[in-house]
Design a protein that fits this description.
The chain is mainly beta. The chain has a single domain (19-146), classed as Jelly Rolls (Sandwich), CATH 2.60.120.380. Helix content is 11%, strand content 40%. The chain has one helix and ten strands; from the N terminus they run H-E-E-E-E-E-E-E-E-E-E. It has one helix spanning 2-17; strands at residues 19-21, 36-37, 43-46, 54-60, 67-75, 81-88, 98-99, 108-116, 121-128, 140-146. It has a five-stranded mixed beta sheet. The protein has a five-stranded mixed beta sheet with strand order 2-4-9-6-7, with no helix packed on it. The two termini are 26 Å apart.
Length: 147
Amino acid sequence: MKKKMVSLALSLVLVFSFTQSAFATVGFADDSYSAYVVNPFEAYQGYITTSTDSDWFRWTNTTGSAKVLSVILVNSGQQNYDLEVAFAPPGVNIDTPQTASDNGPGGIDSYGVGSLPHNWTIYWRVKGHDSSQYSSTVPYVTWIHVQ
């Protein structure tokens, strides 16, 4: 158990050490059409600055084969942000987002995908759990892990 905690702590330190800012402004990536294009294994730090703010991200599988992947959201401090995930084949609008399990303030939410087909896009949104969950000073961190 102690090894797992040390490993988790080290992983979080590394994630927070190599994050890119998601620019933390209202109007940045506020819908699926303006979703921020991410690179696998790069973490992005952002802020949910108002009760109606949300940040969208996307990754398109252009690897030539189906991929197993996970999307991760780390909630910082006392804020509780939610992770929603949606998918789309080429040329089709996204489907209805599905909400990942909520692990509360300071928790880690994740959503695993068993097989994302070639040329499909995964979208994910980070938003406040309710209208009181936002902060211009307490960030979240998100990334996609592709196998």
